[in-house]
Amino acid sequence: MNLLELHQQPGVYLVLAAFLMGAGIYGFLRRRTLIGMLISGEIIFAAASLNLMVMNRFFAPDPAVGQVFVLFIMGLAAAEVAIALSIIIAVYRNYRSIGSRELTGLKG
Amino acid sequence: MNATFPFSEYLVTAVFALAAGTTIAGALIAVMTTRIIRSVGGLMITCLGLAGLYYFLHSPFLALMEILIYVGAVCITIVFGVMLSEPDEPAEPRRLTRTLRSAAAALVAVLVGLGLAYLSLQGPWPTAAAGAAPADGSVAAIGRALLTTYSLPFELISIVLLLAILGALVIARGGRHRAEPEAGPARRPAAVSNPGTTPQIEPAGADPVPELVTTDSR
Question: What is the ipTM of this complex?
Answer without folding.
Answer: 0.90
